[in-house]
Write a structure and sequence with these properties.
With 274 residues, the chain is α/β, with parallel strands linked by helices. The chain folds into two domains: 142 residues, Beta Polymerase, domain 2, CATH 3.30.460; 114 residues, no CATH class. The chain contains twelve helices and ten strands. The strands form two sheets. The protein has an eight-stranded mixed beta sheet with strand order 1-9-10-2-3-6-5-4. Strands 7-8 form a two-stranded antiparallel sheet. Strand 5 and strand 6 form a beta hairpin. The chain is globular and about 55 Å long.
Length: 274
């Protein structure tokens, strides 16, 4: 697993004490914790680019690999619940959204006690391709890598764009980051991506990210990502919500790279981590 070392840094906005508290529960329960959402974006992307996020947040989103409903309840037991939510808690003063995946899934969704249903497609895939981040004071945690973040943002936009368009803006941020150091170094070595996008580095970077994002997906689950990108109406709305001058090139490159890897002949279906 790759390591992103942020030791001693003073410009990392993710509260380390919150991550440390969550990891204590991870160790106590034996459950894997994965940082996702804005916190993963800040740790994996903005910290490496050494730039401040345009849209910052002190909230932390995590995914927890569980074997059953009891695991989720046990993991969250010490934390203060926020309002009537089944998955929002107060940890060290910060709001933490905890999403279970794995053993509680039914058709890639989880149902909470209050009746809410959440599509967790992409969480297990992100866990299998996670990167390790060493935070400023030494706390080490797994986080969704850049390609996984892009896939998760597409699926999140699909599910909630009517209420909030932020996922499209975040998708543009993630894909544009792939055109910058240190991420773009991998793109210059990817002849397939460069040739497919006629040596346009913006498109090639998105193609490269798309191919890597597709690797842990089964064909059935990956088709849900492609459906957003290839549907005429959904693609048009996503482009509008991205509000990025490179949007067309980014989506085209990502879709082509994702489809090429997902449809690779002889590629075995990917199972889910339990």
């Amino acid at each position: 697993m790759a390591l992103i070392d942020l030791s001693g840094r003073e410009d990392v906005p993710v509260p380390e004490e919150v991550i440390a508290a969550l990891l204590e529960r991870s160790e106590a329960t034996g459950l894997q914790v994965l940082v996702v959402g804005a916190a993963a974006r800040d740790l994996v992307i903005h910290a490496q680019l050494k730039e401040r996020p345009a849209r910052s947040t002190l909230d932390v989103d995590i995914a927890v690999a569980v074997g059953g409903d009891g695991d989720f309840t046990e993991f969250c037991a010490p934390f203060e619940r926020i309002g009537g939510s089944e998955h929002a808690f107060r940890v060290c003063g910060a709001e933490v959204d905890v999403v279970p995946f794995g053993g509680t899934e039914s058709s890639r969704t989880v149902r909470f006690a209050d009746g809410n249903v959440l599509d967790v497609r992409g969480m297990g895939e992100a866990a299998r391709t996670a990167v390790r981040v060493r935070m400023p004071r030494g706390t080490e945690v797994d986080a969704a890598d850049l390609p996984a973040q892009a896939a998760l943002k597409i699926l999140a936009w699909r599910d909630r764009h009517v209420l909030n368009r932020k996922d499209a803006v975040d998708l543009a941020t993630v894909l544009n980051a792939a055109t910058k150091d240190p991420f773009v170094e991998h793109v210059w070595g990817d002849d397939k991506a460069l040739e497919a996008m006629e040596w346009d580095i913006v498109g090639a970077a998105a193609f490269h990210v798309g191919g890597r994002a597709a690797v842990p997906f089964s064909r059935a689950d990956g088709s849900e990502v492609l459906a957003v990108l290839e549907g005429e109406e959904s693609r048009s709305m996503l482009l509008t919500d991205m509000r990025d001058r490179n949007g067309e090139t980014l989506l085209t490159g990502f879709a082509r790279g994702f489809a090429a890897e997902l449809g690779r002949e002889g590629r075995p279906p990917q199972g889910r981590r339990r």
